[in-house]
Amino acid sequence: MNSTGMITDYPRFVKSFQNVSGLDLNYYKENQMKRRILNFMSTRGYQEDYTDFLKDLSLKPDLYDAFFKHLTINVTQFFRDVKQWDVFREKIIPDLLKTRSSLKIWSAGCSAGQEACTMAIVMAEYFPGINFSILGTDIDINVLKQAQSGIYDERDFASTPPHLLDKYFNKSEKKFQIKNTLTRNLTFKAQNLLTDKFDRGFDLIACRNVVIYFTDEAKDVLYKKFADSLNPKGILFTGCTEHLFGQSQHGLKSVSSFFYQKL
């Protein structure tokens, strides 16, 4: 595929796609995004000019949904990065509960809800009797539909302790549905992290394996918004490739690897 026209006209593509989707690709690293777009177009048989591709995105919902999912990279599982969840359970939540009797938690960029559900499982299993609420948000309404249904595939549980899978999910053939004992604490809604206003008063915000695709400028804006949304001494939980440099300028300090406390 000759990508010259595509790359040259990238700003026009960004503007046109934003009109279709509401997603502003200027916030994402340009070279990474160009590669992802070109790869998708090539696999779908689009050549050189993106005009037909953009037109088809407006006319073909299945193509649009596949492309949107390709761009937003919804890949996660329950208890992803097990060691971080050990710290979450053994240090972060106990420390928060020293000064709080309930917790308001947000999973930002939650994909199909695996991370939000993981936090609900930890709270129910290891901190019984503690009131908590968990909000999960994502820009992709299709993965949010799965989060709201609470139905997952066996492959989502590769890192999940078997006793927790048995306790908190009902199995039907090769699908697993989360039990109502957890869903009553979970809420999911659509949200654009880069442009929408945030709620406030969170004790913990988890945003993991999301910002690695953003520009440095977009990261700075987002981390500032997260800090503003946290209660004093609240915690920001990032992914294992997302070290937060210059954390003090966002009003945060490191309390453990990938966990940052609001000053």
UniProtKB/TrEMBL annotation:
Entry keywords, A to Z: Methyltransferase, S-adenosyl-L-methionine, Transferase
PROSITE patterns: CHER (PS50123)
Start and end residues of each CheR-type methyltransferase domain: 9-263
Signal sequence range: none
SMART domains the record matches: MeTrc
Database matches in InterPro entries: Bact_Chemotaxis_MeTrfase, CheR_C, CheR_MeTrfase, CheR_N, SAM-dependent_MTases_sf
One Pfam short name: CheR_N
Name used for this protein in its record: Chemotaxis protein CheR
Provenance organism: Dehalobacter restrictus (strain DSM 9455 / PER-K23)
